[in-house]
Amino acid sequence: TAVMIFVTEPFSESKRVKADDAAANPADTFTALKLNLVRDFQTGIYDYNTMVSVFVRAETMEPAKVSFSSAEWCGHVYTEMTFAQKSIRGTVASYFEGESGPISLARPRNGVGEDELFVALRGLRGDFLAAGATRTVPYLPGVLHARLAHKPLEWTQATITRAAASEKVTVPAGTFDAMRYDVKIADGRAGTFFIESAYPHRIVRWSLPPDVSGELTGSARLEYWRLNAQGGESHLKDLGLPAPR
Question: What is the pTM of this model?
């Protein structure tokens, strides 16, 4: 099961966390669009509970921070990366000795991160690609993929193509007119994203290993942080999710 939570919030430039009081230091605060992508899945006897948080600057859609957590029967993993103009810095804290340590990467011009695709392809500040266009870019695999593949994060290349015409896509949430993006990665992986043609350009369907696939079961615009008391679970039906037993 996957849940995507998109929300804007004031973000500290220096600390790279949500600002407690945006008015206290406006010069150090910008508006971030945050995606929390929660993915829970079973693997044999034990289950994985994972979340990727992607923070982009709302005005430019440039990434500012990516964090990742995983909890499963073997232990915890936490990854955090902050983005500067020409570099990416961070750390991995894992229960595996050989997977823990600092992250230090160059940030190539026009580079695209896999986790960033879930925001960038929605085109909230303009289309990522024109219809029928193709772009080959430096590509940083996603933090979940790196975790499951037990590989360090490093840049590769990917070719991203937008189909020339929209397609009708039927998912549990309904039938949508959607833009199709195909992603072919140099490591042999390939993925597909269908993005709702009409605003707000929701992600209707995607396939991107290690995910098998995802389909939109429901969507709602809610002040979810106010729905954390008994009775708030009634809104899960708007998302196509079962209420807890």
Answer: 0.94
